[in-house]
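Possible regression after last week's pipeline update?

I re-ran a chain I had predicted before the update to compare outputs. Posting the input and the new output here so someone can diff against the archived version. Not blocking, just want to make sure nothing changed silently.
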Amino acid sequence: MPAAPSVAKLYVDHHRWLHAWLRRKLGCTHLAADLTQDTFVRVLGARDIGHLNEPRAYLLTLAQRVLYSFWRRRDLENAWLDALAAQPESYAPSAEDYALVREAIETLDRLLDGLPLRARKVLLMNRLEEMTHTEIAKAIGVSLATVERDMKLALTHCYMAGLGAAAATPQARS
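New output (post-update):
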């Protein structure tokens, strides 16, 4: 793989700097280490990184995306835990239920990754909060046409992300 030496050099040259940046953002050295590694995993999946003019800018962009995904996933998990806390005490999910919900949250996070914030918000308000397009438009202060355009973008994005995931599974290839 020709990209491997470039990734190794990028890692050696910028790992410490990126870890320090993430540590300042998160306030936790362990989380920063995890997200630094996640960022470099994304670098491994990138094409043609040998000709980067601004490697720190590139790494910072990737790290911000990893950080936003982390925050989004954490917010989804916290929302589920809040909903669970509101349940009667007699309701205790089994380990299987918890694993299924966590898997659903991670799938949702993957599907929404890369989607503009407003389009993501429109989709979640419609599907999770069961708001109409008109209600969403009023709530976020945009036109009905904008909500419909964002909804179309979000649904198309999720559909295409789902197709990409299905193509990557062994069953889809056979």
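Follow-up from reviewer: compared with the archived run. Residues 55-85 form the longest helix (31 residues). Marking as no regression found.
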